[in-house]
Structure formats: C-alpha cells, structure tokens
Amino acid sequence: MNVLLEGYRSFCETADRELYAALASGQQPHTLVIGCSDSRIVPEEIFGAKPGELFVLRNVGNRCPQEDFGAACAVTYAVAHLHVRNAVVLAHADCGAVKAASHPEHLHEEALKGWLGEESCQGACLEESVKNWGIRQLHRLNSMEVVRDALAREELVTGLFYFDIATLRLDYFDGTHWKTGIEDL
Ligand SMILES: [Zn+2]
User: Fold this and answer.
1) Residue ranges near ligand 1 (ion) with Cβ within 5 Å
2) Does the pTM exceed 0.90?
3) Domains of the chain with CATH codes
4) How many angstroms separate the alpha carbon of residue 19 from the centre of ligand 1?
C-alpha cells in the first residue's frame, strides 16, 4: 500500500491544481475509450490526454458486449449524456485476454470462462487475432442503439486503435480499412 501513498505524494507535488479546480464542477470529455485493464495500456498516456478529456471504460480484453451492464452503461452515459464526439476501442499487442481466449481449455475459473470463453479468436498470428477481436468489439459498439442514433445524426465518430507496446506504433481501423502508423491518419 505504501507504494500507492508514495505515488500520491509525488502526484500532489506536480499535479495541475488549477485544472483539477476547474474540473471540480463537471466534465466534458471529448472521447470515450474502451480499453483493456492491462497495466501497460494507459489511454491518457497514449493519447496525450489530461484529466477531463477521456471517458474511459477498462475491462479485461477491451470488450463491449451489449448484454454487459458495465459496458452498456458507460457507452450510454458517455454518448447520450456527456455527448462525446469520438468513441474508440483500444486494442493492444500481447493482449492476455486474447491469448487466454484462444486456449479456452485453460480457462478454469468461472469468471474467466464467463467473460472470455464466448469470444472466438481468429487470426494467423496474435496481432491479427487481437485486431479481429477489436473489430468485433467495434461492431458491438456501433450496434448499440444510442451509438447508432448518434452516428446517424453525425454527432459521433467511432473507430478502433491497435497499440504496439514495444514500438509505440498506433494502427487505426475506421470501420473498413486499417491504416498502419499514426502518421498516416
Ligand atoms: Zn489486453
């Protein structure tokens, strides 16, 4: 626990107090990010965002099942009430969730089986499997009623990112094509 308190002390020394004071009365994030719980994947770092800019849902495997109240609630609140302009899924290299789901025979605990067992993993390599997994989450996101409505009104843009941990490369899927590397966006 000490490591957290030490971190908090250090945070207080450098925190932008004016920003936090301004944020105390509300938030207007521009983007909803559905990211993985993986400790290496920090949306605010990757997108250079400050507190108040990203509304983030993180779960194991950056999943977006409609029947999951956690995902449905985060998406609905961000789109219908906070009026985010972007909603993105953030998939990543070396995703343990995708690796685990590709070997369902190793999923013993009910919680892991229940959350990951229903996902299929298709791809010639892990990167392809992760990307296909991410596309499936994007389709689920796009098919939520609140998202469909916002897309139809052209008030929202949705997409999928793939972050390569070792190189920091960011690929983007716009719903039809992959663009490799941030400089191509
Ligand atoms: Zn992951």
Assistant:
1) 36, 38, 95, 97
2) yes
3) 27-177 (3.40.1050.10)
4) 30
